[in-house]
Amino acid sequence: MKNSNELCLPLCLPFACFEAESRNMEMANQTPFYSHYYAEMLLVQEGMPHLTLDQEELDLRPGEVVMICPRVRHRISVADDERFHMIVLRMDPDRIPSFPDYAPGLKSILAEVRRAQAPMRIPAEEVKKIGLPSLFTQILQEIKERRYGYDMGITSCLGILCLLMVRFWMAHGVVLPSRETQVDPIYSLSAYIQSHLREGLRVEDLAEYCGLSYPWFAKKFRDIYGISCKDYIEQIRVARVEQFLLFTDLDLAEISEVNGYADCSHMIKNFKRLMGITPGQYRLQQR
Predict the structure, then answer these.
(1) Residues 198 and 167 both lie in one domain
(2) Which of 18, 22, 19 is nearest to 4 (CA)?
(3) Cα separations (Å) of 153 from 122, 143, 159, 247?
(4) Contact present, 249 and 265 (Cβ < 8 Å)
(5) Taking a C-beta distance cutoff of 8 angstroms, is the pair 236, 206 a contact?
(6) How far apart are CA 255 and CA 198, in angstroms?
(7) Are 8 and 138 in a shared domain?
(8) Domain shared by 51 and 130, yes or no
């Protein structure tokens, strides 16, 4: 049986967090370069993995944190006899709580720090000083335990973590943009989908919202998000259904309605396809 944190490419929830080890990852000459629409932060706990970040080569050390901004090509590798262990934190800048009204959004900030060539690696002593390890471990613990309100606890930690990162970059001379950076709507579509999930979202309508023809939109969406738009919407819906099953006593018909399904049978079918179990069975096992 799966849970929504395991359906994290793309992100069903606004975040994902897990532990990664060299023994369960492909190594350097086999691992391709990746880029994705979400941001990724790595906390190295053991070993010295090598990170290629666009044109930058970084040898990471235990205790260090590195930020991988959206749409940046990267690859992790280690020597054949080397092991590493790290906590990986992924977040969708468009779907986590926004910064105050006087500040630009996280996506605009990340675009600016990348343009300014600010340091993406934070030394271990600085990481410890500003308290990043405890935030990583708390988020990981929330993911594992998934107690009531765990998503709220995680987004609270993410807000503090992002604030500390922004202050770190500002201390290194980064000047925050005065307003939001204008981007192609398709790159911020995850937030639009989440806020309109209760409606009968159609791929054709999303293509029109982005000002693109259906075929071009479908191709571009898959290139950016790594999945078809239809499957992406279904994954986000299933993740929300999972939360309603865990933390409410609503019946399946009510859950299907509040999550934008045409009928309950459609919800059951898609939930079982992605999670390997029916919603009713899932609720019983979890309780």
Answers:
(1) no
(2) 18
(3) 24, 10, 10, 15
(4) no
(5) no
(6) 11
(7) yes
(8) yes
In a domain, 196, yes or no: yes
> What three-state secondary structure class fits 198?
coil
Burial grade of 127 (CB within 10 A; 0-12, 13-18, 19 or more): buried
Half-sphere exposure of 111 (CA within 13 A, CB side): 16
Residues 158 and 54 in one domain: yes
Is the pTM higher than 0.85?
A: yes
**pLDDT digit string, tens, across residues 248-282:** 999 999 999 999 898 899 999 999 999 999 999 99
- pLDDT, tens digit, for every residue of 58-112? 999 999 999 999 999 999 888 767 788 999 999 999 888 767 778 888 888 999 9
- CATH code: domain of residue 162: 2.60.120.280
Strands (E), 47-82: 50-53, 56-59, 65-68, 74-77
- Which three-class secondary structure state does DSSP give residue 261? coil
pLDDT over 60 at 9, yes or no: no
- Give the other-Cβ count within 10 Å of 248's Cβ: 12
Q: Are residues 193 and 124 in the same domain?
A: no
Residue 114 CB neighbour total at 10 angstroms = 17
- Asked whether residue 157 is assigned to any structural domain, the reply reads yes
- Residues 165 and 195 grouped into a single domain: no
- Domain residues for the domain of 131 are 4-171
Q: What Rg value do the Cα atoms of the chain yield, rounded?
A: 20
- The helix (run of H) or strand (run of E) holding residue 40 is strand 39-46
Identify whether the C-beta of residue 260 lies closer than 8 Å to the C-beta of residue 201: yes
The CATH number of the domain holding residue 234 is 1.10.10.60
Phi-psi region of 24 (alpha: psi -120 to 50; beta: other; left: phi over 0): alpha
pLDDT computed for residue 103 by the predictor? 83
